[in-house]
Amino acid sequence: MPLPKDLIRISPTTWELPVTFKKGMLVPARIIASEKLINAMEDAVFEQAANVACLSGITGYSYCMPDGHWGYGFPIGGLAAMDPERGVISPGGIGFDINCGMRLVLTNLTEEEVRPRLHDLVNRLFSRIPTGVGCHGTLKVKESEFRHIAEQGSRWCLKKGYAVAEDLELTEEGGCFTGGDSAKVSNKAIERGLEQLGTLGSGNHYCEIQVARPENVLDQKIARSFGITIPNQVVIMFHCGSRGFGHQIATDYLQRFLKVMGPKYGLSVTDRELACAPFRSPEGQDYYAAMKCAVNMAFANRQMILHRIREVFSDIFHRDPFDLGLRMLYDVAHNTAKLERHLIDGAPRELLVHRKGATRSLGPGSPELPACYRESGQPVIIGGSMETGSYLLSGMTGSNATFATTAHGSGRTMSRHQAKKLFRGDRLQQQLEQRGIYIMTDSLGGLAEEAGGAYKDIDEVAAVTELAGLSKRIVKLLPMGNIKG
């Protein structure tokens, strides 16, 4: 597909659509990409980034990260910072899977120690961490307890013995967005979330045993500061969010915003998937409080999964999980909106930052980081496909230009429907096992959707984020075993 004729390359990694590209644009749209990645982007990415640039109160630029592809309303990889006093909040800028995010866990085990027990570990993880559409977790709580979880996030897990204090210190915002109000959440959403704590779900969600080989450690000093200290060290990465609970909250408020957006507030959007409300309006504040509940449920969900991982490794190796070095490295969200302070024209301003398939990436020295990461910058976790590996990176000061944001994954190159036509899940599973990657899945069709060939080149995406000054590559992590929905 030819690129839009208005697209201007303003640096080796930044492309810009001026406000003349589409009627109603308030700011230019910028896409972070190499020539290879920009030429592979769908037309919809340019249209959606331009649509976002039309939203009331947008500040600076509408951005799309190098893993960008079509999404609901915003492109996946989309980023917009809004003036909270005159701008809007849009569920399409956060996604249905609110606080979908990544968690990386260290071990002090090596590939040589784990490989002989890999099948046992993957099989046991698959039995202990429910996967698939609509799956239910093993933790049963009453509605009143679930409402506490939605307001407290990982803090609830700590009180109940499913976390240690360090887990919360190494989670974005301590594992709780303050201000969550479960009174703003529908009964239907509560009902959907009630039995989903500690579950992965389906789609591109996974839990993966990975290895950091010496040749893939790209910055020894920062890798050591992150806890990657021994050759062929094994780590565990997982990716999931707020499940049906967050999906229902997004659905409820999209419908509510569509009813008031024009008649009550005189707002119009170029795409109804960008339904929104003024951030300071009663409807905007209600959604923000409900969204925080989904954020907190997702933090608790990932914490419960970590608890199960610790149990499984302890059972298999007959040792205490902390003797096995099962410590958090970091947990970071990539589907949220949050009030943050950023420098605009040299002066600090509070902005409502929407990240939709985009990761916060604080550079060295940020006071918002745990003390152990202030020198290196924030750990950034970019998940790739189960075939090609993933990256651990660190935030760079250049990310100030993108409101401290970088990519979140590889980014799809084709739809799930197309992938299922091109790949067969059973063959893929066999081929991967021959390559030393053991996979358990709830759905072979779902496995085909996640084939490596359905994604962009993760090496290219990670390299572009570094070249753009957003996040520095520290370690490439290769898959050994994986459970998928």
What this model shows, in words?
Monomer. It comes from Geoanaerobacter pelophilus. Mn(2+) 1 binds at residues 97, 205. Keywords: GTP-binding, Ligase, Manganese, Metal-binding, Nucleotide-binding, RNA repair. The chain is an alpha+beta fold and 485 residues long. It is built from 15 helices and 19 strands. Strands 7, 8, 9, 11, 15, 16, 18 and 19 form an eight-stranded mixed sheet that branches. β1 and β2 form a beta hairpin. α5 (143-152) packs across α11 (282-317) and α10 (243-260) runs antiparallel to α11. The mean pLDDT is 96.
Summed up:
The protein is of the alpha+beta class. The chain has helices spanning about 35-40, 45-50, 110-115, 120-130, 145-150, 155-160, 165-170, 185-195, 220-225, 245-260, 280-315, 415-420, 425-435, 445-450, 460-465; strands spanning about 10, 15, 30, 60-70, 75-80, 90, 100-110, 205-210, 235-240, 275-280, 325-335, 335-345, 345-355, 360, 380, 390-395, 405, 440, 470-485.
Layout of helices and strands:
Blueprint: E1 8-11, E2 14-17, E3 29-32, H1 35-40, H2 43-52, E4 58-69, E5 76-82, E6 88-89, E7 101-110, H3 111-114, H4 118-128, H5 143-152, H6 154-159, H7 165-169, H8 187-193, E8 206-212, H9 220-226, E9 233-240, H10 243-260, E10 277-278, H11 282-317, E11 327-333, E12 335-344, E13 347-356, E14 359-360, E15 379-382, E16 390-395, E17 405-406, H12 416-422, H13 425-434, E18 438-441, H14 444-449, H15 458-467, E19 471-484
Parallel strand pairs: 3-4, 18-19
Antiparallel strand pairs: 1-2, 2-3, 4-5, 5-13, 6-10, 7-9, 7-11, 8-9, 8-19, 12-13, 14-17, 15-16, 16-19
Helix pairs in contact: 4-11, 5-11, 8-10, 10-11
